[in-house]
Amino acid sequence: MIDANTLFGFWPLRRADISPETLVSTLKKHKLKAALTLSTTGIFADFQRGNEETLQVCGQSNGMLLPIGTIDPRRYVGSLEEIDKYLKQGVRVWRLFWEQQGFDLDLHPLTEILKRLAERGATLQVDATRRGDPSRIAVRTKPFGLRTILLGVDGRHVGELVSILGEHEQLLVETRRLADPQVVTALAQRFGATRLVFGTASPLQYVSSAKLPLEAAQLTDEQKALVMGGNVRALLAGTGA
Is the pLDDT of residue 189 over 80? Predict the structure, then answer.
């Protein structure tokens, strides 16, 4: 099992232990083989320093932690070079924090960033927690065919997801907040299990609550294996949908 959504470092205004040690301990407790992760320094301070910390921590984890890169398009200068630098070091998944950093998806520097990620065969992660977010992200990433994982979608987004997933084949959906197993089952049946990804937002969020919808969903063992790690492996290998 591979967790597609974790982080480590610090989180403003919240007393939570999200150290690398706590993250690794949590993964082992829940028998997760590996996790994609990043340093929160890249969110709240400096993305270049954050990427350095991410690679350092991942390099010391014996393969348990896999790096996610991040870019802040508000500070566009050097962004494309940053992407190329870390792609050469094997960072295949990148994340934007438009909610925390307060930029709009229409920001023009983001166009070049999305284009570069797509050209290099990378995968993007983006929070899509508000109504309309999945649609905005779908439209923004479609011109580049950029594989994009929608994070944080929940029951309020079901109609929106059903509407856009057929047309926007570049999109995948994190199952963490899809609390109803029937929703997970329906999405897998309609669009294929290759469009779903297991993530937890650990250690900020509980792993168990993210696993429950998948464990109770009416999926075959093969489908569950794809959602719980197979799809992430394919993305990392550059063979994902």
Answer: yes
221 alpha carbon, distance to own chain's centre: 23
Q: What is the total residue count of the chain?
A: 241
- Average pLDDT over the chain, rounded to whole? 95
Could you check whether the bond before residue 134 is cis, i.e. omega within 30 degrees of 0? no
Closest Cα to residue 197, out of 169, 171, 218, 168? 171
d(CA 196, CA 174): 6
Say if residues 7 and 185 touch (Cβ distance below 8 Å): no
Q: In this model, does residue 57 exceed pLDDT 90?
A: yes
pLDDT of residue 179: 86
**CA–CA separation, 141 and 55 (whole Å):** 26
Tokens standing for 150?
Answer: 């929608």
Instruction: Give the chain's domains with CATH numbers.
Output: 2-237 (3.20.20.140)
Which residues, other chains included, contact 92 with Cβ-Cβ below 8 Å and sequence gap of 6+?
A: 121, 122, 123, 235, 236, 238
Confidence of residue 240 (pLDDT cuts 50, 70, 90): low
197 - beta bridge partners? 174
Quick one: how many helices (H) and strands (E) in the chain? 12, 8
Pairing of strands 123-127, 147-151: parallel
Exposure string for 171-183, b = 16+ CB within 10 A, e = fewer: bbbbbbbbeebeb
Query: DSSP label at 146?
Result: -
Q: Which amino acid is at 133?
A: D
Tokens 């082992």 belong to which residue? Answer: 28
